[in-house]
Specification:
Number of helices: 16
Helix content: 25-40%
Strand content: 15-25%
Bound molecules: 3-acetylpyridine adenine dinucleotide
Largest sheet: 8 strands, mixed
Shape: globular
Oligomer: single chain
Low-confidence stretches: 1-10
Length: about 550
């Protein structure tokens, strides 16, 4: 009876201390921290379960390429001790099980409204409250509005002419059917060759009668080196995870399973360079990019790493003309997100797998029966769009956010995102982004960056609440200085030299701005701590 009363009270509640959008890793932890402060929060989640990225990205082969022992929450020793990962890189179903396990342990679901997409959020200056409206037509009010919408969650299917005429089913990797898809005996077309394609293509090829891959840009891909995790490795990690996580926060990428070599390539002999590259290639994963101290900064170092990778890649591709297409040569290595694979390149050795260069002959249209490129129709039974996301800003701007004076965030960001520390934006009081543009986010272990942000935001909200402070928002000056700093740091790296989603270049018409902060998690964390210690320097507090 008491339970029923509580449930109906919750259903009727219209006012909360905070509304959180998204129940992935970020939203789940944010909810937990706010509850610990004794605050009320409502989470809105478009999916019918927790998980965020890992709820939607169910494509075959979906797997995290940060090692599972590091890609887990680090805030609770009990939670981590009671969970055991099975593989070096966890597959999507295992990560989703882990998130559900955490939701159970913390009893999170009772404050999450599932299958509910937020449509708009409007700030009422007089009341000092956000009104948050859902696409179901309901609305609630909250003092704080927190976007935990993830960086890669607005899946994007390019605007191909004729797509509605296609007679077969089509899928986007980032919005994959829960029940899975059986490709057995079918002719499949995959468009795209980024991480999602690189992971899914070997598995799709294993089922399909014929697979045609449409590639616009060849990508650097390294063998992941996945393997089962031995008990000793798991036990060791459980014993030290809490300290390890503190250490991870001081590093550039929020990862400690490998160290970056700080020596510039030019200071090493050719033999030492080769030995270092070989060692790191054999380690599997991103360790390879840490071969020299200046890989992401100088062309000389980068070329050396890229050349080594190309030679390794070529060595497993049997047909030279296919190798010529699959080897990337139009951008430095690492400036587009590096892919990790398991037998991706080898898949193109199979007689039933074809590669079509749509850089030379772009996709012209989709027809009833297939995909047309270079005047030729490739007949397929199903199409898989592995075409990525409107990254970093897509999900935030998917909600019509209206701040002080009726200003729309969409208008304010029309020439690119403007934030202070990636946490908030001037003119939008009490609005927080978790891992927003202008923070290390996608250049780091997302879980470490999420925890860094959630804890900072929770601490801030706790202090405002205790001090009876009505609002906090970045000053325009602080925001301008931060945006300049983010651009300046990016300009000292090679990152801006590729048409990547980091730059918004995958979306026609999207402003070309390098969106994440390339200064590193450790440096950024020091800045966050300093800002908080100086009574939120760069933020205006409203009485
Ligand atoms: O998307 P992408 P993704 N015609 O944007 C092509 C994370 N992630 O879903 O490069 C033809 O990388 C596009 O071509 P181009 C990870 O951070 C992590 O694969 O723009 N092709 C590209 O090849 C990753 O980086 C994991 O020229 C078109 C592809 O589609 C991010 O998510 C796993 C096209 C899109 O690649 C996004 O990865 C998966 C068009 N009109 C994803 N439009 C792990 O943790 C786009 N393309 C392992």
């Amino acid at each position: 009876m008491a339970q029923e009363t509580n449930a109906s009270a919750r259903a009727e509640a219209k006012e909360f201390d905070a509304v959180i959008v998204g129940a992935g890793f970020a939203g789940m932890y944010m909810l937990h921290r706010l509850r610990e402060l004794g605050l009320t929060a409502r989470v809105f989640e478009a999916g019918d379960g927790v998980g965020g990225t890992w709820y939607w990205n169910r494509y075959p082969g979906a797997r995290c390429d940060v090692e599972s022992l590091e890609y887990q929450y680090g805030f609770s020793d009990e939670i981590q001790r009671d969970w055991t990962w099975t593989e070096r890189y966890a597959a999507q179903p295992e990560i989703l099980r882990y998130q559900n396990y955490v939701a159970d342990r913390l009893d999170l679901r009772r404050d999450i409204e599932f299958s509910t997409r937020v449509a708009s959020a409007t700030y009422d200056e007089r009341a000092g409250m956000w009104t948050v409206a859902t696409e179901r037509g309901a609305s609630v009010q909250a003092k704080f509005f927190i976007m935990a919408t993830g960086c890669l969650s607005a899946a994007r299917v390019p605007d191909f002419e004729g797509i509605d005429e296609f007679e077969g089913p089509w899928y986007h990797t980032g919005d994959w059917p829960k029940e899975g898809v059986d490709f057995t005996g079918k002719r499949i077309g995959v468009i795209g060759t980024g991480s999602s394609a690189v992971q899914s293509i070997p598995l799709i090829a294993a089922e399909a009668k014929h697979l045609t891959v449409f590639q616009r840009t060849a990508n650097f891909t390294l063998p992941a080196g996945n393997r089962p995790l031995p008990k000793e490795e798991i036990d060791k990690s459980k014993a030290t995870l809490m300290q390890d996580r503190q250490h991870a926060r001081t590093t550039a990428g929020g990862i400690i399973c490998f160290e970056y070599n700080k020596t510039p390539a030019a200071k090493m002999t050719p033999e030492d360079r080769e030995r270092e590259l070989d060692k790191r290639w054999n380690m599997g994963g991103f360790a390879f990019l840490g071969a020299f101290g200046d890989v992401m900064v100088t062309h000389e170092a980068n070329d050396c790493v890229a050349e080594f990778a190309r030679a390794k890649m070529r060595s497993v591709i049997e047909k030279p003309e296919v190798a010529d297409l699959l080897l990337p040569n139009d951008h430095p290595i690492g400036v587009k997100r590096l892919c990790l694979d398991t037998h991706y390149l080898e898949t193109f050795n199979a007689p039933h797998v074809d590669l079509v260069d749509v850089r030379k002959a772009p996709i012209e249209r989709i027809t009833r029966k297939g995909i047309v490129s270079g005047g030729k129709e490739y007949e397929v039974d199903s199409i898989v769009f592995a075409t990525g996301f409107d990254a970093m800003t897509g999900a935030i701007l998917g909600v019509d956010i209206i701040g002080r004076g009726g200003t729309s965030l969409r208008d304010k960001w029309s020439a690119g995102p403007r934030t202070y520390l990636g946490l908030g934006s001037a003119g939008f009081p009490n609005l927080f982004f978790i891992t927003g543009p202008g923070s290390p986010s996608v250049l780091s272990n997302m879980i470490v960056s999420i925890e860094q942000h959630v804890e900072w935001i929770a601490d801030c909200i706790g202090r405002l609440t205790a001090g009876n402070i009505r609002s906090i928002e970045p000053t325009k000056d602080a925001e301008d200085v931060w945006v300049d700093h983010v651009n300046e740091v990016a300009s000292t790296t090679l990152y801006p030299q590729a048409n990547s989603w980091y730059m918004g270049a995958n979306i026609p018409g999207k402003p070309r701005i390098f969106m994440p902060y390339a200064g590193g998690v450790g440096v950024y964390g020091e800045k966050l701590a300093e800002v908080a210690a100086k009574d939120y320097e760069g933020f205006a507090l409203g009485a």
